[in-house]
Amino acid sequence: MFESYNIPRRSGLISITYLLISSTVWVVQAGNRQEYQYSDDAIENKLICAGKLADYAACQCDPSAGEYSCINAQFVDANVFLDIATNYKYIKSVTFHGNNFQDLTSTPLFGADSQTSLIKLNLSANYIVNLNSNALRNMPNLQVLDISNNEIVFRPRDVDFLKHTPHLTQLYMRRAFTVTINRTQQFELMLEMFRQAKLEYLQVLDLSYNFIHNVPFEIACPFPSLHTLDLRQNFLKNFIVNETCIKEVNTINLSRNQFYVIPKDFRALADKAQPETFLLRNQFYCDCNSKEFITWLRSTKSVREKNSLVCDRASPKMYVGARIAEVPLNKLTCDEPLFTSMSSFKFNFYSMIIAFIVSKMMF
Fold first, then answer.
1. CATH number belonging to domain 41-342
2. pLDDT below 50 — which residues of the chain?
3. Which GO terms describe its cellular component (predicted)?
C-alpha cells in the first residue's frame, strides 16, 4: 500500500502517526481559514448604521472614516439626514443616491449644529424638484456637491441655495433639471443663484446632459477660480460667452452638441482662450461651404484633440469618416445635400431621445 503512494517503508505505527499529524495540520489550517472569513464578516457588520438607518440594508456607515451612504433605499422623507447627525459627531462624506425625496427640507439637512467636517455631499438621482434655500445651511466647509440626475425647478426664493457653501470647489449638475418650459427664466434664476453664492473657489462646474440650447453669456463670471466647464451632450450650436471670464479656464467640453460647423464668432472667442481649452467632438459636416472653419481648425491651438475630429457627413460622400485635419479642401463639393429642415427635425428629435436614455443609464 505504501509503495503505491510513494511512501517510504517504515513501521505501521510511524506511518499512522505521520498521517494523523498531517490530518491535524490540515484541520487547523481549515479552521484558521474559517476564522479569517468570519473576520471579514465582522468588518462588514461594522458598517451597519445606528438609529433608524440600521433598518435599511442599503445604508452603510463608517464612523471612523466619517462616511455615510444610502443608495437606492427609496427614502421619501429628507429628514433621514437628521438621523446621521443625531448618532454621529464626525461627518465627512454623505451620499444619498437613488431615493425619492422630491423636496429638500426647508431647514438645514443635518439640523442646527454646524457640520464643519463635512466635505462631500452627493444628492444625485433623488428626483429632487425643490431645493429650498436653507437645506445646505451649517455646512461651511463643503467642497464637493453633486445634485445630478434630478428634476430641479429653480424658484426665485431659492436663489441663495448655494450661499451657505462658500468653499465649494466642485459642483455637479449633470442632468439636474429637465423641465422644458420657461427655459430662459430657469437659466436666469440659475445664474442668479451662482451670483448670490460667491463661489470664489469653485474649479469644476458640470452642466452636461441638460438639453441646453443657449448658454448664459455670464455663465463663467461668478467663478474666478473655474478651470473646468462641462457642457457635453446638450443642444448647443454656438458658444458665445464673456471672454474675459474664461481666460483662466483650461477645459471647456462642448462635445456631443450640435456643432455641424464652427461659427465665426465662436472661432474669434476660441482664439482668445488658452491653448487646448476646447473639446469639440461633434458631428461635423464637410463640404464646399466648410472650408473656412476647416482651415481655422487646422491652424488654431485652442481645440484639444483636433486631429481626431472627423467628417460625420461629407460631399463627396467618400470623405465621410475622414479626419478633418487631412481632408483635401480642393476636393470638397456641394453636390450632396448634407442638411435639410426635415433631417434637422429628425436629428434633434432622435438626439433628445438618445440623450435622455444615456443619461438614465449613467445613473
1. 3.80.10.10
2. 1-43, 340-347, 358-360, 362-363
3. membrane
